[in-house]
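Are you able to produce any protein sequence you like plus the matching backbone structure tokens because I've never seen that pairing?
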Amino acid sequence: MSQTIYLMRHGQTLFNSQHRIQGWSDSPLTEKGVNQAKIASQYFPENQIKLESAYCSTLERTEDTLLQITDLPYKRLKGLKEWNYGVFEAESDYLYPFNNDANFFPLFGGESDLDVQKRMSTTIKDIVTQDHSSNILIVSHGGAIRSFARAWRKYEANSNYLPYENCCVLKFIYENDVFSFQNMYNHDFSSLES
């Protein structure tokens, strides 16, 4: 039996709007972030997708996003948290290394890309093996989602990755112990620009 995972990034937060590195640090959704989540919630009914179960990380920004998407009961899981950026948490994002060296953040008390890939893959695999729903919503974080996608890249059906905007949705099919990336959807938030 195949299962479909809708892996979604949270809405804009205060730290996003201030261009600060968030990681395990948390900040609330902005008004724009709440509105992004409301717009993103339409993706599912517009595509005749009936969500059957829902999960989010233990960080407030994912839970607040999920609450705008569905009224399903949900579980908060630590394994879905954002990448731990160590001493760079809450600092200006101009300090973020552009080369994405997988071993950079452990030098400063954070996680490596491999750490995040393993944590996300283990957590999401636990979800699908314990929850036999056909359509599962998981609200997580940009860095953690990127790491998960990298872990399963060799199985992807589509390599058309767009920028990981707030409230983007990545669709994965889980079958035969493999997560296969299908497509990604970024929403049109032009009505929110002012």
Observations:
- The two ends are 46 Å apart (CA to CA).
- The longest strand covers residues 178-185.
- Helices lie at 14-17, 31-41, 43-46, 60-69, 113-130, 142-151.
